[in-house]
Amino acid sequence: MMISLKYSAGVLRWGMAVVFLWLGVNAFVNPTYWLTAYLPKLIATAASNLGLAGSQFAYVGGVFLIVTGISLITEIFIVPFCFAGIIMLVLSSVSSNVLEITIRNVGLIAGLIFLIMKPDIKQRY
Q1: 7 assigned to some structural domain
Q2: Domain count for the chain
Q3: Which domain holds residue 109?
Q4: Contact predicate 27/58, CB 8 Å
Q5: pLDDT at 125
Q6: Exposed / middle / buried, residue 57 (Cβ in 10 Å: 0-12, 13-18, 19+)
Q7: Which of 49, 62, 69, 73 would give a disulfide with 21, using CB separation of 3.0 to 4.6 Å?
């Protein structure tokens, strides 16, 4: 059973890493779509009130997503990045009117919670 848990956690980490890396690269390739589909409207409004361009937030979000994906692969700072990923996904779900995005985020959040709660998670700092 423990071997199965070990391998399943690895498969989950790599699968989640691919998702976060893809979303991060997508923020750089197509920032306009990323802004309308993933960035919480509340944050976009606050940014525009401060005079910041939306594409800057897309790039910052893309960097965060890529670093989260790298953290999932390397297991370095995995717990803090899992928590940060959960916060970002919750904000995206709360601000989104699209049910498919919310359902997808629930699945991703469940995977991140599993990785946080996994008993033998490595904490390399």
Answers
A1: no
A2: 1
A3: 15-117
A4: yes
A5: 44
A6: buried
A7: 69
